């Protein structure tokens, strides 16, 4: 009986230690999430720079390989090996600057022209009463009556404000303070934007230079044994590569397809709107948010060309449908593959959670972060909770080999 009681005590103490361990892990995760939420605005430039450095890292590695090959020359052997990574980083930054410059030279004039055309269309739309009546005719009669009642209430409020005793004081404050605050806020926003851009460039440069060292440190920080650590790191790298590098290429292709489709049809802001949809395509299902903008641009296009609005809606729906089918059936399977085959419910949940935690960066990183968390959890369950399954699988593999 005493031996049994001792074994029971040991088992109870072991269970207590396991419970305390899980409680500690849970508290650490909660504290990390709270810290990330508190520092999300500060971490946003760093995360953005890390994504840029990770996406272009294969280019840096390739240029570094070529540089090391050139440094084997007898006259260049005195140059430190560290300089190869520095040269590769500088060359990659110059290449990125050249790509951005070429993009601006190609698209900026057309974008400015489209903005000018869109401004003239809006001005014509607001000054032409026939257009306004045609737009109102698109809405149900109840909606039109509600809008008329709302505008009548606004006119009544304006007439009541005209007899206000503090009208002069309000007008003076309204003229002085908004102007001063507008200048200050505009200057501050410009300065903060420039500072953020400078920080992103600096972060990107240093991360590109130290990426091999960072990857080695990450391998040491993973709390798994030597057999399972390479599998987890390989899977994590594959997930990151499949999403950020491949999905950025998919977003660029889809944006170009939308820009060509809307630009050829002559939609106002067609090229800009198409590239904007491509940018939204970095986050799954987020391109749905562009449909109200497409509806508004369809109204402008209908009244500019005289094409019936229902036909314009059919054209827009056909463009969305065809490009979505091409993306799902050809582009994504060929470029991204099926590595991140998450159910739609989990995708929406991960977007909501990571978006709340890290803002826009969380929206972009939601899918790979969720896949990485699932992979880590699966590895932990397989190696720590059910280690016998791992041993049996290794024995089966050894027997087969």
TrEMBL record:
Membrane topology: Multi-pass membrane protein
GO cellular component terms attached to this protein's record: plasma membrane
First-listed, main subcellular location of the protein, grouped into a coarse class: membrane
Pfam families found in the cross-reference section: AI-2E_transport
GO biological process: transmembrane transport
TM region(s), chain numbering: 20-39, 45-63, 84-108, 186-209, 249-277, 283-301, 308-326, 346-377
Domain of life assignment: Bacteria
Subcellular location: Cell membrane
Family designation: Belongs to the autoinducer-2 exporter (AI-2E) (TC 2.A.86) family.
Protein name: Predicted PurR-regulated permease PerM
Organism: Fibrobacter intestinalis
Lineage: Bacteria, Pseudomonadati, Fibrobacterota, Fibrobacteria, Fibrobacterales
